[in-house]
Amino acid sequence: METLKVSTDTLFILLGAIMVLAMHSGFAFLELGTVRKKNQVNALVKILCDFAVSTIAYFFIGYTIAYGVDFFAGAEKLAEKSGYELTKFFFLLTFAAAVPAIVSGGIAERSKFNPQLIASALIVGFIYPFFEGIAWNDKYGVQAWLEVAAGAKFHDFAGSVVVHAVGGWIALVAVLLLGARRGRYGKDGTVSAHPPSSIPFLALGAWILSVGWFGFNVMSAQTIDKISGLVAVNSLMAMSGGIIAALVLGKNDPGFVHNGPLAGLVAVCAGSDIMHPLGALATGTVAGALFVYMFTLTQNRLKIDDVLGVWPLHGLCGAWGGLAAGIFGLKSMGGLGGVTFMSQLLGTLLGIGVALAGSVIVYGALKAIIGIRLDQEEEFNGSDLSIHKITATSEREAGW
What we know:
Blueprint: H1 2-34, H2 40-67, H3 75-78, H4 84-96, H5 98-106, H6 113-137, H7 142-150, H8 160-178, H9 199-218, H10 229-249, H11 254-268, H12 277-301, H13 310-328, H14 341-369, H15 376-381, H16 383-388
Helix pairs in contact: 1-2, 1-4, 1-5, 1-9, 2-4, 2-5, 2-6, 5-8, 6-8, 6-14, 7-14, 8-13, 8-14, 9-10, 9-11, 10-11, 10-12, 11-12, 11-13, 12-13, 13-14
């Protein structure tokens, strides 16, 4: 029976890893559909290569920093217990690799390719696992201190803060250091629209992400005996709340509508295992509204050229999710308890602080040493031709 349980746990977490791996294609198509046609190839190549670089960085460095585990042993040792520990690494890797995928959407259309791969390796190798170890492995005594000082450990079941807020705040720094795309904002205060190149591809990316998210959330239990239907229903309710809020406040704009479910799902990750479904619905609804309002504010008034709106979507909705777990997770609010608002606030602020400091160091150093932005001509021609020497469609190719 023990062998059967271990094998079942291995299969369970492997299926979760595969579902979250599939989400990376969602990141790719969401970016492909949002950027202009001259940058579509770059969107696809960048997400794929970021994942490969993240795998290597996390295998050799990041996983050890977060969990104190390495794989420098014989295959016979690694294959023990049906290879569960290796499969767990695969599952947690897909979370880690989501951070560069998030950043990619913010810096699209004007970032250099190789410096971004270096940044991805440093983020997944050092910055992300540092906070991951604190939140999910009780490292450095932070959780023990929160339990004493704030009444509970910081709770983030599936990564509202650990993955999404960290990724979104890292992206904000990168976006600010890069600067806006040329021609986006005029000196007279005008804002030039760069509409999505393909709503169908944008929608496809959103659908892939939404479906895969149920592996992201539900299978964060990591063993079959801890699986909870509450997580699945809470994810569903938050997703629906996000869609409705984005539909209404976004005035039927398809870009907002298809980012609405993602906002809700980002926010519910942290407390999906402890909230009542009505609390999850409220969390998702607030997140959908927050995304629409803050995307419009950052793009049009603050003139922060975050192409996919990853700071509002992941950075702010992820932070809201961390706080929401400390509200709707309380027994007085219909939740299961075991959390306090103060511990959630402090844990969320710590995650944001780690992200900001790490991103300033990584992107600041890369900008100073090798540069992180395409030159004016390369940006005008598009990253597809400038970096990959090919376009997404044949119309721009040279004649026969």
